[in-house]
Amino acid sequence: MYQFIETICFEQGCFQRMELHNLRLNRTRAHFFGKQQDINLELLLKVPDQLINETVKCTVTYGIDVLNIEFVKYTIRPIRSLRLVTDNSIDYAFKYADRSKLNALLNKKMECDDILIVKNGLITDTSYANAVFRHENIWHSQQNPLLFGTRLESYIRQGKVTPALLRAEDLSRFSEVRIINAMISIENSPVIPIDAIHF
């Protein structure tokens, strides 16, 4: 049976972007299992008392139903360099619990800290985050990422990030790249200079 995950950020005393997490979870369930009664994650999530003042990564594993909920204190790991890795067949349109294909690509990072996946000539995501690219004061994201993260979707709705078709040869147009996901914002992302992306 297919299993999926939602990674939800708890900070400053509340869960972030819950509307988008609920929407993605229930859309995924409907796609794979047919129309189901919607799950409201807010009714199921309670941060342990000892973590209530921390930034917490909540991981929900689910299929038709929620299977497991885990809470851990979160710290951002440093990412200073990326390796471009090509895979024209990878499909991660849904947030599968099985990350074996992504992990196989990650094994190609060599001396870099992470990878930046290229699919059919287009820059997509790192192994665990969307990527946004800075040109002057404008942030751009891939119009067709491997996975639409909830933070990326929120930024696009706010007009903070502009989607575009980004090809590997476009990288020189940008000054830096930052990684974003449920746990990492543009503001607290590691700053990766474009010349720290290796071919």
Summary, kept brief:
This protein is an alpha+beta fold. It is built from three helices and 13 strands.
Descriptive key words:
199 residues; alpha+beta; D-amino Acid Aminotransferase, Chain A, domain 2; 4-stranded antiparallel β-sheet; globular
What does this structure look like?
By secondary structure, the protein is an alpha+beta fold. The protein folds into 2 domains: 4-73, D-amino Acid Aminotransferase, Chain A, domain 1 (2-Layer Sandwich); 82-198, D-amino Acid Aminotransferase, subunit A, domain 2 (D-amino Acid Aminotransferase, Chain A, domain 2, Alpha-Beta Barrel). Helices cover 16% and strands 32% of the residues. It has 3 helices and 13 strands. The protein has helices at 18-33, 100-106, 150-158; strands at residues 4-11, 14-15, 56-62, 66-73, 82-86, 114-119, 122-123, 130-135, 138-142, 161-164, 176-180, 191-193, 197-198. The strands form 3 sheets. It has a 5-stranded mixed sheet. The chain has a 4-stranded antiparallel sheet with strand order 2-1-3-4. The longest helix has 16 residues, at 18-33. The radius of gyration is 17 Å and the shape is globular. The mean pLDDT is 97.
Helix fraction bin: 10-25%
Distance between the termini: 37 Å
- Unreliably modeled segments: none
Strand arrangement, major sheet: 10-9-8-11-12
